[in-house]
Amino acid sequence: MTAEGWFPPKSDVHVRIWLAGSIFDYTATAAAVRNLINDWRHQHWCTIELMCDATDDRRLLPRLPCERLFAGQ
Predict the structure, then answer these.
(1) Is residue 62 packed enough to be buried (19+ CB in 10 Å), middle (13-18) or exposed (0-12)?
(2) Per-residue pLDDT tens for 2-34?
């Protein structure tokens, strides 16, 4: 299964990043997360989890740092 199959095309997604025993929850555009995962595939520097939220709680999460870099803007 590819990430392309279930990613919403234009909405925000909840991404959880595990780094050195710490957990970071962010919201980001689907395009930015897709690019983040593509970058991660070249070198696994953390663990990435895509959260399927049933609610709009992701609106309360901080934006992914440097999201614009991963979004290609």
Answers:
(1) exposed
(2) 445 555 566 788 899 998 989 999 999 888 988
pLDDT in tens, 45-69: 788 888 876 556 667 899 999 888 8
In a domain, 68, yes or no: no
The residue with tokens 């309360």 is 60
With H, G, I as helix, E, B as strand and everything else as coil, classify residue 4.
Answer: helix
Cα gap 13→33, rounded to integer Å: 8
23 within domain boundaries: yes
Q: Which domain holds residue 40?
A: 9-56
Q: Look at the chain and report how many structural domains it folds into.
A: 1
